Amino acid sequence: MEYEFHFEVVFRNSGMLLEGAWLTIQLSFAATVLGLLVGILGALCKTSGIKPLDWIASAYVEIIRNTPFLVQIFFIFFGLPSLGIRMSPLQAALVALTANLGAYATEIIRAGIEAIHRGQIEAGLSLGLSRLQVFRYVVLFPALKTVYPALSSQFILLMLGTSVVSQISAEELTHIANFLHSRTFRNFEIYFVVLLMYLAMSTMFRALFHVTYLYAFGRKR
Amino acid sequence: MLLRDFGHGDILLLIYATRWTIALSLIAFAGGGLFGFAFTILRILPIRLLNYLSSAYIQIIQGTPLLLQLFVVFFGLAILGWDVSAWTAAAVALIAYTSAFLAEIWRGCIQAIPKPQWEASSSLGLGIFQLLWYVIMPQAIKISIPPTVGFLVQVIKGTALTSVIGFVELTRTAQLINNVTLEPFAVYSVIAVIYFSLCFPLTSLSRRLERRLNVSSAN
Amino acid sequence: MSLVQIEKVYKKFGDLQVLEDISLNVEEGQQIAIIGRSGSGKSTLLRCINGLEPINQGNIHVDGDLVNGQKTNLKLLRQKVGIVFQSYNLFPHLTVERNITLAPTVVKKFALADARALAHEVLRQVGLEDKIDSYPDQLSGGQQQRVAIARSLAMQPKVMLFDEITSALDPELIGEVLKVLEYLAQQGMTMILVTHEMGFAQRVADRVVFMHEGRIWESGPPEQLFASPETPELDSFIRAIL
Question: What is the ipTM for the molecules in this complex?
Fold first, then answer.
């Protein structure tokens, strides 16, 4: 084993890597916020009792969950332009990530809604609240509390998943790593350090979500 | 390179390439299952150091992207002097990935067995391995099947990433065909359908098993 | 017209006839107790009155409004009909005060300050003013049920429905809830209550309705009904209870 490690190459380019990491974080948050909206909408469709809405939402969820993210992103970025839908790499990445989180969030939120006791909904209706008001005031918060742990794991998975959008040249962390690799050929060092950067980010966000949970759902007594 | 139309021949090529996706998934699942089981045991044995090591391993794998794991394994093995093929690197990385996730799923299942079961058995004088073997595992295996089948879907989808390090499975074949046909919409639609028809049956099976389990535990 | 007017109501769950030819009038200020075995249809009848369960035949009017019509505005109707459930159904993520002010502010568009004043007022009536900032899981079952009553009262309903509201409570907590009901009865609140508390029914109700197999089997003033049941079914029911 004669290999000499040259980590200094990585550190010389740390500015670029940090910029990439920042874009990874931004992309993850943007996709999460949009994906949650999609997820709430999807869950509403699935629990609405209106058959066509249920079918559409179910089809969407199953298609996303049963195909690889890489294929989805190739389809969106390379395939959709034949239908006249053209996007920049970053836009395509955001759309793909949102669609992905939306599908998982739909299932998670639906489960959260269904975990709400029927009596809660009846109590709301009996007080004269409309179905939408019952959802907004009675169901939503307890449902979010139930689903928060699952959603935060999903966020971490999404953030790790953003590495895949490097394949359409969206300039997040992994793409920067690929770029440095092609320029410096210190491939192991670069990828190893970037791996650790992802590990740091996921550890950090997991801790952050835990604290947020305590703050948002823990009760002030 | 000459351009040609995307035709029946290409679809056959894709279906043919699917066997590599399946083969890699099976290897990852078998190897991942084996190591995953070992990590599960290491996590629940009453030996602190082993618990920490195992859980650190799981956290690292679960806290980093599979794509980066593939890169690190691919280039890392080369540094170690093993000139590995994309095929070997893909298998190693996916086994590592699968083992960590399965270990976490299975630990959850084992810990889902109510405490009195553990207490009752140890008060009967069973040792830790006897306890696991005779009391806990038979119950845990039952509840572990639906999530395990569900995770197989993640493995199959994960194999698509091995195309990035040059392993010619379904997605890589699609890229190659796309390069000569320039019909990305058709090519990626077809492989989406192929992946879907591999994954969806497993997803539904997992859901059905889960439902049956819930019904039987409710009665 | 009576405040609550139920005419020839039929209801099925699948093949099971749960309500059969039910007719019942409740005048303003009356207290009606509905008794009977479980499965006799009493809770279902109650839930039909505020439209939580649809009916198959017949008519139900509350305060002149048809409950089971195509064009019925259930939202408006439910503001006139309060209901309290066996399982309290307080909203666990909201304080006692917010549980009470939610519907007045959201449905009736009260200003928050007015709704708060109202919350204090109804909590005073159930004797729980000091719990205004608590969360439901910090209260005993009896206290939760009293808050549920207060929450319903805050909508200033014309009639209140009570669906076995003491059945889930520990015996020592039943008294405090019944006391609130008695107070409401004295205030002249129109009430329909499904209950297993026979002594209470006897003391408070103007009229007792005995339901059996989805029908109104017997009804009348409590003293008469309990002292001299006309049907063997009621007779055996009373014996079993007492």
Answer: 0.90
